[in-house]
Amino acid sequence: MKKFLALLLALVMVFALAACGGTETTPSDAPESEAPASDAPASEAPEDGDSTVITDPKVNIDAIRRQMGMVFQHFNLFPNMTIRKNITLAPVRTKLMTQAEADDTATALLRRVGLEEKADAYPAQLSGGQKQRIAIAGVLAMEPECIVLDEATAMLDPVGRREVLSAVHRLNREKGITVVLITHHMNEAEDADRVVVMDDGKVIMDGAPRQVFTQVERLRSMGLTVPDTVDLLDRLRKDGLDVPLTALTVEECADAILAAVSK
């Protein structure tokens, strides 16, 4: 089961959740790394379910990179190219697909992110949320096993954030693509399978959202916040209302408050 990971980094002010996307800025387009110093053959990328230490000089880092895609704050789309061309450029350049195959893939990916009608449009004709969904489609064209979204929703309005997160959740649940999301918005981490909190390069917390976000004071001591629902419940608890901090969603929060005031 591919996971949806939320990575929360304190102090450096980076929160992570998963998904990668970019056009030419995909790991497979990165420069070739130097050959391992050892005479032993370089290890290939791990099979599904395996793990590897990517800093090991025997590891073929380029094979690892080819399994990953990244989406950044900025949309990384070529403004002089159509949306279809932005998506097909990398797989054709890297000889992963022929132009015809890439065109078919682009159509399928655009349909998947709900923008099939924008194939012949240019980036300037799209909203911020639409551009990020195109960036995700561009990364998916490289057929990664994992996508990393580095604050990909930071520059978007609430509507754009919902569009991107909806696309990411569908990819994770329907296509089994592992997603790592880095975000400043705590509410975006509510649906993650796993939340990791890091401080100065060290893992401070690691667990399910309900385990991590109930540690309100500890998170605040690191300069972090909690989801709006947990913040509200924490304030009510301090005012004497017996409500659980584990009610993460709006519906759960409303039900918890109703149950508490009805006692």
Question: Could you describe the 3D structure shown?
Answer:
This protein is an alpha/beta fold. The chain contains nine helices and seven strands, in the order E-E-H-E-H-H-H-E-H-E-E-E-H-H-H-H. The protein has helices at 61-65, 83-93, 99-112, 128-140, 158-175, 209-212, 216-221, 228-238, 250-261, and strands at 4-10, 14-18, 68-71, 146-150, 178-182, 194-199, 202-207. Strands 1, 2, 3, 4, 5, 6 and 7 form a seven-stranded mixed sheet that branches. Strand 4 (146-150), helix 5 and strand 5 form a beta-alpha-beta unit. Helix 2 crosses helix 3 and helix 3 crosses helix 4. The protein starts with a strand and ends with a helix. The relative contact order is 0.17. Residues 9-49 have low confidence and may be disordered.
Overall residue-averaged pLDDT value = 78
Rg value:
21 Å
Proportion of residues in extended strands: 5-15%
Number of helices in the DSSP assignment: 9
Shape: globular
How helix-rich are the residues, as a percent range? 25-40%
Order of helix and strand elements from N to C terminus: EEHEHHHEHEEEHHHH
Q: Summarize the biggest pleated sheet.
A: 7 strands, mixed
Number of β-strand runs: 7
**Distance between termini?**
41 Å
Based on helices, strands and strand pairing, what is the structural class? alpha/beta
